[in-house]
Design a protein that fits this description.
- The complex is a heterodimer.
- Chain A is mostly helical.
- Chain A has helices spanning about 1-5, 10-15, 20-60, 65-70, 80-110, 115-130, 135-150, 155-180, 185-190, 195-225, 230, 255-260, 265-300.
- Helix content of chain A is about 75%, strand content about 0%.
- In chain A, helix 2 (about 10-15) runs antiparallel to helix 3, helix 3 (about 20-60) packs across helix 13 (about 265-300) and helix 5 packs antiparallel against helix 10 (about 195-225).
- Chain B has 13 helices and no strands.
- In chain B, helix 2 packs across helix 13 and helix 12 packs antiparallel against helix 13.
- Chain B is globular and about 70 Å long.
- Classes of the chains: A mainly alpha, B mainly alpha.
- Chains A and B meet through helix 2, helix 3, helix 5, helix 6 and helix 7 of A and helix 2, helix 4, helix 5, helix 6 and helix 7 of B.
């Protein structure tokens, strides 16, 4: 009888059924596990092949001049100065717009909103926005920011478009972080006479901060790797100067990489690989910062 | 005195904060309205010159040529072709990974596989495009000599790897939500682990798993850079994945890269193509969200 309670334990199963039927079942079980592990191996092998392929092409080009040169007609002299700077500017501008907006929206939905039709509509709407293709955001940005508001093909138009694109990511992650803060914290603060906003600002937000930060950085990583919406609003592919202010034209690393990969010459494709390597390096740095901050803050704020 | 206590004081500062926060939340609704309005008004301008019948029934898409044709069918077929290749890769692999992680994997393996999947999901799509064009296509050409340099197959395969993490993690969530009592009952009846997975957990999580696959499809339909780089720029009405095709998204990129003057018919075409894309993904997302609601309401 004890064998019956051994859930899913194969030797027990075989003893119960016995003979060839049991062996067949065990064979199937092994075959299935093998298939699953193969599926996981496929993912890992692709990841390794992708990184190896890019690094092999990129390494010969990753010299200091590559970072300090503007793009050029000659592949060997072309660099990523304008696109790297553009990407960093774009990330900070997008962050300045999207972090307050996204966290604000999350606080409203999690802490203030009553359960009614309007709230339901906003929630459904955010879930749907998260699934809108990025290129469609580009069309929105093109009409509203580039044409209607006359920001032209500027950093400002680009970062506003990106803001709308990553807003759902930040809202969803921030809401989860807020939800993870125990209700007792809110009740304790309110019982001591804090207003709702005081309770949120002084108690809930600090506790939710690591989670919110992770969401914001996730949004940043999305923004820094996106290409299609910026191409759609007309960000240029060849820029031989640095943006001076938010109204300057700009280019970013993924667009530069796209421009180079679309050319038939192998030398330019190596440039594309190098630009991609730098882009991936930026992403890894961003994510490491997020993990490091989360660990550091969580230690201080554990409850 | 008693009356004073009963009357709630209005805290103006709290009210102002609340209004500001509401405005933040309202931005998302305004964004949706903006998308719909922009796509509809610009598409209307297109349909004033080209009849919807031509748009839906013509078999060629050549709005930038001297002899213009406006049949959206080749773009839709190109989009479906690359997306289906992607789904054929991502669905079986993603489900296997999900079942393994949810029902079999020891914690040590989970700790390794999860970050790999997250990393795959975080790779910018332009990187996948590079990989599809310069690694996967040359590799495939060794086995399939008549594979064109730009083709739906390589783009679709790589797109499959891109959506694999999404399908795997959403399906795993769905299977994780199936209560353990169901598994225990199956084991009690003498089911093996494999039988429990396929006959109990899988059917119980089916609505969530379908939602995951549909969301994956929607992601593939809206994906831009991989197909713009590796699938080509020729609107072919074909079901042959060895050929170059043009997707809805790749067309928008193609026009955006050129200097199409604002207000021309060519300019309006990107919005009508965008509207088609938006309609397809909205339909898919709505089905997926409805399915997900269903499994959430059953097991929570």
């Amino acid at each position: 009888m004890t064998q019956l309670t051994a859930t899913g334990n194969m030797p027990a199963q075989r003893d119960l059924v016995g003979g060839s039927e049991g062996r067949k079942r065990q064979l199937k079980e092994w075959a299935f596990q093998l298939a699953s592990l193969t599926a996981i191996m496929v993912a890992i092998v692709v990841l390794i092949a992708l990184i190896a392929d890019i690094m092999v092409d990129a390494l010969p080009r990753l010299k200091p001049e590559f970072f300090t040169n503007f793009p050029s007609r000659r592949a060997a002299q072309a660099g990523i100065k304008s696109s790297l700077v553009g990407s960093i500017y774009l990330m900070f501008l997008t962050g300045a717009f999207s972090a307050p907006l996204g966290v604000g929206a999350a606080i409203y939905l999690e802490e203030y909103a009553k359960v009614n039709r309007l709230t339901r509509l906003i929630e459904l709407n955010i879930a749907n926005l998260a699934g809108v293709p990025s290129v469609v955001y580009g069309l929105l940005g093109l009409e509203i920011f580039v044409r209607l508001m006359r920001f032209e093909r500027s950093l400002l138009a680009g970062s506003l478009t990106m803001t709308l694109l990553i807003l759902p990511v930040i809202i969803i992650a921030s809401r989860e972080a807020l939800r993870a803060v125990p209700q007792s914290i809110r009740h304790g603060a309110r019982a001591l006479g804090a207003t709702q906003w005081q309770a949120i600002w002084r108690h809930v937000l600090p506790l939710a901060f690591p989670g919110i930060l992770t969401g914001v950085i996730l949004g940043f990583s999305r923004a820094i790797g996106e290409t299609a919406p910026l191409i759609t609003i007309g960000a240029l592919t060849f820029i031989a100067f640095l943006p001076e202010n938010p109204f300057s034209p700009f280019t970013v690393l993924p667009i530069q990489a796209f421009n180079w990969v679309s050319r038939p010459q192998e030398a330019f494709q190596q440039n594309a690989a190098a630009a991609i390597a730098v882009l991936m390096g930026l992403l890894i740095i961003l994510n490491s910062i997020s993990i490091w901050l989360r660990l550091k803050l969580q230690k201080r704020l554990s409850w | 005195m008693a009356q004073d206590l009963r009357k709630r004081r209005i805290r103006w500062d709290d009210l102002i904060v609340k209004s500001i926060l509401f405005a933040c939340a309202a931005v998302s609704v305004i964004t949706t309205l903006g998308i719909v309005l922009v796509l509809l008004t610009e598409s209307l301008k297109f349909f004033q010159e080209v009849s919807p019948v031509r748009f839906l029934t013509e078999r060629e898409w050549t709005p930038l040529f001297a002899e213009k044709r406006f049949g959206v069918m080749p773009l839709v077929s190109g989009t479906l072709l690359t997306s289906l290749v992607a789904l054929l890769v991502a669905t079986p692999l993603g489900l296997l990974v999900a079942v393994y992680l949810s029902e079999y994997a020891p914690p040590g393996v989970r700790r390794w596989v999860k970050p790999v999947l997250e990393f795959l999901a975080g790779i910018p799509t332009v990187v996948y495009g590079y990989f599809a064009l310069l690694f996967v296509t040359p590799l495939l050409q060794r086995f399939i000599p008549n594979l064109e340099p730009f083709n739906a197959l390589a783009a679709g395969l790589v797109m499959g790897v891109m959506i694999l993490p999404m399908i795997a993690s959403l399906s795993e969530d769905a299977m994780y939500a199936v209560p353990n009592s169901l598994r225990d009952a199956a084991y009690g009846l003498g089911y093996t682990r494999l039988q429990t997975v396929w006959k109990i957990v899988f059917p119980a999580a089916l609505s969530g798993i379908s939602a995951a696959v549909i969301l994956g499809l929607s992601r593939a339909v809206g994906e831009t850079m991989i197909v713009a780089i590796a699938a080509g720029q020729q609107p072919n009405l074909t079901a042959n994945p060895l050929q170059a095709v043009m997707t809805l998204t790749a067309y928008i990129v193609q026009v955006s890269l050129g200097d199409t003057p604002h207000g021309t018919l060519e300019y309006h075409t990107i919005f009508v193509v965008g509207l088609t894309l938006f309609a397809i993904t909205l339909l898919l997302n709505s089905i997926a969200l409805a399915l997900r609601e269903r499994y959430r309401s059953v097991y929570s």
